[in-house]
Specification:
The protein is an alpha+beta fold. It has one domain. The protein is built from two helices and two strands; from the N terminus they run H-E-E-H. Strands 1-2 form a two-stranded antiparallel ribbon. The relative contact order is 0.06.
């Protein structure tokens, strides 16, 4: 992706985030054991989204690592097979 497309995507995401925050600017109270705290609703929703992304990434990490290891093994096996094939090919003899 070119640099300009990345910049446009980042600016668009920031604009959407700002618009979301301006539409959800109400304060909500979180009551926990030692007290309570007030934050904007959009901050809590953003925190929930970030927590979901992190948990999803951590949940898929074992599968990704296993597939990368399997891919490495297959590429190593392919390289060894190609080397063996090249060594076993008969060398053409010249007719005199």
């Amino acid at each position: 992706m070119s640099l300009w497309i990345k910049i446009i995507v980042v600016v668009a995401c920031m604009a959407l985030g700002l618009a979301f925050h301006l539409r959800n600017d109400r304060m909500v109270t979180l009551d926990y054991l030692l007290g309570s705290k007030e934050f904007y609703l959009s901050i809590w929703l953003l925190a929930a989204l970030v927590a979901g992304v992190i948990l999803g990434f951590l949940g898929s990490l074992p599968v990704i690592l296993r597939l990368k290891r399997h891919n490495f093994r297959l590429s190593r096996q392919t390289r060894l097979s190609e080397t063996e094939i090249n060594n076993l090919r008969p060398v053409p003899e010249k007719d005199s």
